[in-house]
Amino acid sequence: MFSYDEFVTRNLGFITEEEQAKLRQSTIFIPGVGGMGGAALACLARCGVGKFIIADIDTFEVSNFNRQIFSNLDTVGESKAEVSRQALLKINPELQLEVLGGEWPDRLSEILPKVDLVINGCDDVRATLLLMRAGRDHGKTVIDAFASTLPNVYVVRPSDPRPEEFLRFPSVGLRPEGLTDAMVKECSGLEMEYVLTHSSTSENVVLKYAAEMITGKRKRISLAPMVWGTGIMMSYEALKILLNKKTSASHKGIFWNPWKMRVEKPLRFPLSVIKRSFVRKFLQSLAG
After folding, report:
1. 3-state secondary structure 121-163
2. Residue 62: exposure state from Cβ atoms within 10 A (0-12, 13-18, ≥19)
3. What is the pLDDT, as a whole number, of residue 204?
4. Domains along the chain?
5. Cβ contacts of 190 within 8 Å, gap of 6 or more
6. Is residue 287 exposed (0-12), middle (13-18) or buried (19+ Cβ within 10 Å)?
């Protein structure tokens, strides 16, 4: 027979009984449960978080196998959100799980008042803009990660600037549905520029494939340790927030280089400005 106390007994020591009880009463919203979102979901469910609202519009395919924790031959063609729900209920049958589909951006005013925090696992620019703006409106912290070849995390608290403001996206002041495809591409490009400026991402990518990705000839590159590492970093930040523990992660992000075993924080002025100029030339050369 399942026992929640037995399930989480080996958590104690890392956290207290009172903190475990708090996790059991916590609710997290995770839109996008394939790659890093799925890894964060799996970690936090095994930590004993009691309730999740999850959403995903996709089904599993073979190309997901290299990094998505709930994907395998048995789940090809199946809903990512529903597969995740079924898998987690086999771990904690008392878990409360609400599953949503592609309608979730239109239901944020209903979803966010019910949750303690948000972990963004979706890679849609327009949906993420809505999520970040709604997080501020509803006073909710949103945990996310930059598109990088290194595990990373950033935490956007209600009082923090939104990523679109911080990174100077062309979307500021506009409704997401009004963004052109060119604007969306520019948003992604500015994020990539930031990542390359403030981390050693460029040292850990094969340039041939990076160029194909930038020009749209190849999908985003991913590797299981990087994706899961990011999900783990996201889950740690979630635990810190839920348990009121100190965290150094901010909206500017923290990168972890596992190849060199070092933490990388954003560069300070004026070094960041100097490096950014080289990064822009680098990106232009790849795109060309």
Report:
1. CCCCHHHHHHHHHHHHHCCCCEEECCCCCCCEEEEECCCCCCH
2. exposed
3. 81
4. 4-170+221-266 (3.40.50.720)
5. 167, 168, 169
6. exposed
Q: For residues 90 and 236, give the distance between their C-alpha atoms in angstroms, rounded to a whole number.
A: 23
The CA-based angle 221-226-229, given to 5 degrees, is 150
pLDDT digits (tens, 9 = 90+) for 246-288: 888 999 999 999 999 999 999 999 999 999 998 998 888 877 6
CA distance 123 to 20: 31
How many CA atoms, within 13 angstroms, populate the side-chain half-sphere of residue 267?
15
Candidates 62, 64, 73, 13; CA nearest to 39 is 64
Choose among 146, 284, 164: nearest CA to 227.
146
Which candidate, 52, 74, 71, places its Cα nearest to that of 63?
Answer: 71
Contact 31, 122 (CB under 8 A): yes
Q: What is the C-alpha R_g of the chain?
A: 19
> pLDDT tier at 119 (50, 70, 90 boundaries)?
very high
Give percent of the chain above pLDDT 90.
Answer: 88
- pTM (2 decimals)? 0.96
E-state strands within the chain: 27-31, 51-55, 96-100, 117-119, 142-144, 152-156, 254-257, 262-264
Q: Could you tell me if 96 and 49 are in contact, meaning their C-beta atoms sit under 8 angstroms apart?
A: no
Q: Could you give the CA distance from residue 260 to residue 248 in angstroms, rounded to a whole number?
A: 21
Q: Under DSSP, is residue 19 helix (H, G, I), strand (E, B) or coil?
A: helix
